[in-house]
């Protein structure tokens, strides 16, 4: 591959590499925006960030970007989503406190990604803590959603066309103790993995110890100097995004078909050809029911590199599926 492509996000690099294997001409139109053009004969396609293509209509990403509209559309299609409410003003938090008191809840901005502004509160008791979490979420958006927390593990289902082609379980940024080194030292060591980098040019992102991690550790009385016991797993943040240092574990072959069909149904409901469906599942071997699973989010620009180069598991070669669907 041309060395100039190394400045692009890894997902785009992967797609370009497969395009060149198929003798497709590739033009990089905007390096910073990961915007490319594919040409073969009379066929021309424009692709941005590997998964934004002509396959999807303009409205589909707008639906997925708006979590409230997404939930509405999915619910109308008999797809399970968490119960909740949307706040337009921070002052509305107090009048909704009694509705969620004693429950496990998720508070999140309506339209942001990468886990920004998301806070999970267990067995809500304190109205001040509730208000502070709502205020924090409003720093990222003009509307905030409060939802029932769904127990289980989060899985990213990648839908291409009419098929779920990859599934990963994302684990939040973490370190495993050895009884000797501090969290800071363990992070430094984990970041030496050549698969970790910055800016999506590597399969995994480096773990950053910032205010989010500091606050999260503080909830359990830990700090960056804490020395975990041998084999003790210490999570550094609540959200499991690979973009914030999380690990990706491939589950494509372990997941029963029922859940794969639900992901495809969700994508079709919002009119998406390429879609990342985040589904919470309590038991992946149990037939789907409202208590065992819930879709918490749909993503209109899903990264493919996490499926091609998971922390654990095999390469799913998602780039081949995209080019096949584009007609190359």
UniProtKB/TrEMBL annotation:
What does the entry give for GO biological process? SOS response
Fetch the InterPro entries from UniProt.
ATP-grasp (IPR011761), ATP_grasp_subdomain_1 (IPR013815), GshAB_ATP-grasp (IPR040657), PRibGlycinamid_synth_ATP-grasp (IPR020561)
Needed co-factor(s): Mn(2+)
Looking at the UniProt entry, the stretches that span the membrane are none
Q: State a GO cellular component annotated for this protein.
A: cytoplasm
Gene3D superfamilies from the entry? ATP-grasp fold, A domain (3.30.1490.20), ATP-grasp fold, B domain (3.30.470.20)
Q: Its Gene Ontology molecular function terms?
A: ATP binding; metal ion binding; ribosomal S6-glutamic acid ligase activity
What superkingdom heads the lineage?
Bacteria
Keywords in alphabetical order? ATP-binding, Ligase, Nucleotide-binding
Pfam families referenced in this protein's UniProt entry, alphabetically: ATP-grasp_6, GARS_A
NCBIfam families linked: PRK02471.1
Name of this protein: Glutathione biosynthesis bifunctional protein GshAB
- Natural source organism: Clostridium felsineum
Q: Which gene encodes it?
A: gshAB
């Amino acid at each position: 591959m041309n060395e100039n492509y190394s400045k692009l996000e890894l997902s785009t690099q992967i797609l370009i590499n497969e395009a060149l294997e198929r003798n497709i001409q590739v033009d990089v139109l905007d390096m910073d925006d990961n915007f490319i053009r594919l040409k073969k004969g009379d066929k021309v396609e424009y692709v941005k960030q590997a998964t934004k293509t002509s396959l999807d209509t303009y409205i589909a990403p707008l639906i997925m970007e708006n979590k409230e509209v997404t939930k509405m559309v999915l619910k109308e299609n008999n797809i399970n989503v968490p119960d909740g409410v949307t706040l337009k003003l921070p002052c509305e938090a107090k009048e909704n406190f009694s509705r969620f008191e004693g429950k496990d809840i998720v508070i999140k901005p309506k339209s942001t990604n990468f886990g920004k502004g998301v806070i999970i509160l267990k067995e809500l008791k304190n109205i001040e803590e509730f208000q502070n979490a709502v205020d924090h979420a409003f720093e990222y958006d003009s509307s905030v959603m409060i939802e029932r927390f769904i127990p289980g593990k989060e899985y990213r289902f990648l839908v291409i066309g009419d098929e779920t082609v990859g599934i990963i379980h994302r684990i939040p940024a973490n370190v495993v103790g050895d009884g000797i080194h501090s969290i800071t030292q363990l992070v430094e060591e984990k970041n030496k993995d050549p698969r970790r980098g910055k800016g999506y040019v590597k399969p995994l992102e480096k773990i950053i110890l910032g205010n989010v991690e500091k606050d999260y550790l503080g909830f359990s009385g830990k700090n960056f100097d804490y020395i975990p016991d041998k084999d003790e797993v210490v999570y550094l943040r609540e959200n499991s995004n690979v973009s914030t240092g999380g690990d990706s574990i491939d589950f494509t072959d372990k997941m029963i078909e029922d859940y794969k069909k639900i992901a495809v149904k969700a994508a079709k409901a919002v009119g998406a050809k390429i879609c990342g469906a985040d589904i919470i599942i309590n038991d992946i071997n149990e037939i789907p029911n409202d208590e065992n699973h819930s879709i918490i989010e749909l993503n209109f620009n899903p990264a493919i590199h996490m499926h091609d180069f998971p922390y654990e598991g095999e390469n799913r070669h998602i780039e081949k599926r995209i080019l096949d669907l584009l007609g190359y």
